[in-house]
Structure formats: structure tokens, C-alpha cells
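Q: Hi! First time doing this. I have a protein sequence and I read that you can turn it into a structure. Is that right? Here it is:
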Amino acid sequence: MSTALSAVVLVGSLKSSSEPSSSEVLGRQVLDALAEHGVVGSVVRLADHDIRPGVEVDMGDGDQWPLVRQQVLAADILVVATPIWMGQPSSVTKRALERLDAELSETDEEGRMLTSGKVAAVAVVGNEDGAHHVSAELYQALDDVGFTIPANAVTYWVGRAMEGVDYKDLDEVPEAVAKATATLALNTAHLARLLRESPYPAG
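A: Yes, that's right. Below is the predicted 3D structure, encoded as C-alpha cells:
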């Protein structure tokens, strides 16, 4: 019997885990939805780690990206959960994407990228427009570094512009968000299972 699929959520909140985060709330809801499809997972709050700028696997001098990278490469599914800041993914999220650029030159014995056959999805929260723009940026970056993007692989919530209500403060999950999260989980787990059973051919 094959082992369970696994997922890791990289939370790009600007705050450390000592503070509540709407991005982490939605990311954990994605994990809960994935669990319904036999996926086990964990969360990494990127701001808790000293991730140095650069595009190498290890930038040295106390760089903690290699610890995060190990979890990404060990998982079948990567979920990137980010807030929207100034219409963009957070700077913390962008730092992680820059570090994933190193995977372009990391290959297995058959010449495939180490991310080949891994599936990625996106969760976005904010109090302004831009969820589609942010997910498009993340999709392209994740595809560039070898991840496969399923259909409908995004869930998001965007509150009213110029107001102070955060996703984490909602009394209940909006129906549209719950539906998007459920679809993301269904499609992501399905594709990850297919790729595990039938990996991409070597080039």
C-alpha cells in the first residue's frame, strides 16, 4: 500500500507565528480540505526563518532556506499562501520564489528537476483587489521551477478596499471560499496521486 500524499504550506505573512495571520488561517483550511483526500501536511511560516536573499540552494552564513527547502522537496504538494500587499504577493513570498529559482539547476539521475511531478496550489488573502493578479504571478513562478498546476488550484478571499476586516476575523468561511478551497483540494490531491503513480518521463 502506498504512503499517504503529503503537503507543505508556505505562509508568506509578514508576521512571525507569534501573531495571528489570515494567510495561515486560509492555508490551514486548505490542509484540512486536503486531509479529506488522504493528504497529511504541515505549515511553515516563512517569517519565522532567516531566509537570505539570493538564487542559490544555500546562501551560507546562517541561511535557513535549506531547512524549508527540505520540507518542500519531501512533499508531494506545495501550497503557497500569501497576503496581498500593494497589489502584489508579499515580499516574504517573493523571497521564497527567488530561492526556488535554484531548482532550475538541480536535477535527479535522469535529468529531471527535483520538483518534477510535484503539484502546487495557491491561497491568497487581502483587503484590496488583486487576488487574480497575485495567483497569476505565483502560478507562473511555480511552473517555471518545475511544479505542476492543477485546474482551479487557487482559493482566495478579498475584503472591501480601505476597510479593516481581515479573513481571520470572519465569523464563518464564506460559501464561495469554502467551495473554492474544496475544489482546490480535490483537484490537487487527484493530480498529485496521478503523478506519483505515473511520473513525467525523463527528457
